Amino acid sequence: MRESPYPMVSVDDALASVLSRVAPLPACELPLLDALGLVLAQDVQATDDLPSFPAAVVDGFALRAADGSMARRLVGEQMAGAPVGLVVEPGEAVRITTGAPVPPGADVVIKVELSDEENGNVTPVHGETLAAGQNIRPIGSDIAAGELVLRAGQVLGAAELGMLASLGRSRATVHRRPVVGVFSTGDELAEAGQPLGPGQIYDSNRATLLAAAAQAGGQPLDLGVLRDRPGELERGLATGLASADVLVTSGGVSMGELDLLKPLLASWGTVHLGRVRMKPGKPLTFATLPVRDADGHIAAEQPVRPVFALPGNPVSSLVTFQLFVRPAIRRMLGVEHAGLPRIDATLGHRFRLDPERAEFHRVTLSRENGQIIARSTGSQASSRLLSAAGADGLLVLEQADGLLPPGSQRPVLLLNSDWLV
Ligand code: AMP
Ligand code: MG
Question: Is the pTM of this model over 0.90?
């Protein structure tokens, strides 16, 4: 029997090894909507006061508090967006709309519903006490000039992007999205849409992994299928290293005769992980490789790229992607907490534990009597992608002997983040 030369490491140690070798990518400037979900690379301070003029909060009349309850003469109107053209003198009022600048002289705005307008005069309704400043947003009351409004490291969602727009910015400075190059390896693989030859199967990993890369926030790059031949793998690897920030391959890392990828990675760079104590996904391989030029030469200052060689079985490749590649992508994006979101769930039936490896069991979740119940998606064969299709998460089962009874609590790594609410 052939023995793998790579030590078996725990999932936690493997993840630590990956994360210690990736860093946030350099910053770039993007139009606001293109920056959605990306991480701000620098602090943002307000350059101006917001509002920059005292603004009416309601539709009504701008007037002077000191005039008390007497009727005022209506001398004009001040609409939102119009320049200020009036001064409010004692005994006067100006019709005003929400968001309009309050004209000089006025120090209060009364609501239209609380005023009586008659014959060109306006009177506050029965003894409304008028306090100066009422219904007026003072200059800088939402944001003061110089205030720190967003911090480097914040993920840009709708409110944050709107915030930038409110400061007049049309672009955001964010960590660049990593280009995630994905290729499949295997002589048996056929392209979806083409007829299958004898002994062939459709390549499902590329579709899965490209989609997972996009979901993680990466920029997916389809590098096609490589046959199990040394020259072809080398060409594909060199192209991938030159065009992607991170490479993800599937297949060719178990102990079969044609599993050529690990020795190739070892001769081109450094293999940090070759076996992880997990089910599925044991042959997960992680390496860092310097970029080569077209002739295969490594220039002195070439960057080093992370390369994930995932096992070929469809579920193994997806689970190892979610546990190791996704966090690497998130870290390159600048996200602080790079792992899948985790919740606790109650087992809806018994689960058998694996004495040799931690297991990531695909489950559906349901809410029953105030509890979140996890149930298996059925046969967990690593070839059966149907165990992952429709799954809400990965139930984390510890390496141990025996059975967990129904009602036990275990963590679930969420694949469907709608379950966070
Ligand atoms: P390997 O890791 O190359 O030994 O492949 C393990 C199993 O996964 C084999 O049954 C392969 O046929 C299957 N497999 C490998 N790559 C793919 C792929 N891209 N899509 C679907 N199945 C695959
Ligand atoms: Mg193969």
Answer: yes
